[in-house]
């Protein structure tokens, strides 16, 4: 069952698909998958408190196409132009992203496109205390380098790049939510909170007028480390910060500033 486009606004999707050997790329960092082998049927399963789990099961006649990912590699598929409604693949999706980059290239003389999922974890393994959409320059450069090299593997059929969508784009709307929690008042003298983000991006495509249009969904939660220790508790008592003391006693050191859910969603813009 293909998820409805409107559901991207409210239901977080955690994605996976079948694992298949690439057509090309065993000795390179570009794994190319064939269109038919990437096709699957979709199952949407409850994922407890985290929305829905989107699972693809291999079927060369399936109504969906799944693009896997590989750590420190780039994967790609030549995504065939959609047929009329109800015939052929009607949905495209990638594995979830939380630092990867998604690219789309057009092809000369065709409505097919090439879709890419690039990962460069080695250049930026992440870390605490950073903005949700922060990414080291070396990582951004490596992701773009992977894309350029993969383009060369397709030869002269590439027309132009129309989508280049990465962490700096899809996690941007989480930044102000982190900042809001950081600046909220604490009892005088109590140390600042450590506020962190945990989230993913879901990228998918739907047919429109014989072509594909691509969408994203950012989902996650914001949590913080509640100040603790005898000194902080004493200051809380002196300043009468009873709400802080009650939460520390009943909820412990970790608090949830924003429960898991959709942060933002929408159509991915085309590069002019």
Topology:
Blueprint lengths: L12 E4 L13 E4 L5 E8 L5 E7 L5 E4 L6 E6 L11 E4 L6 E7 L5 E6 L18 H17 L4 E8 L1 H4 L4 H9 L10 E15 L2 E15 L4 H10 L2 H10 L2 E14 L5
Parallel strand pairs: 1-4, 2-6, 5-7
Antiparallel strand pairs: 3-4, 3-5, 6-9, 7-11, 8-9, 8-10, 11-12, 12-13
Explain what you see.
The protein has 272 residues and is an alpha+beta fold. It is 18% helix and 38% strand. It contains five helices and 13 strands. The strands form two sheets. The chain has an eight-stranded mixed β-sheet with strand order 1-4-3-5-7-11-12-13. The longest helix is centred in the middle third of the chain and has 17 residues. The protein starts with 12 loop residues before the first strand and ends in a 5-residue tail after the last strand. The mean pLDDT is 85.
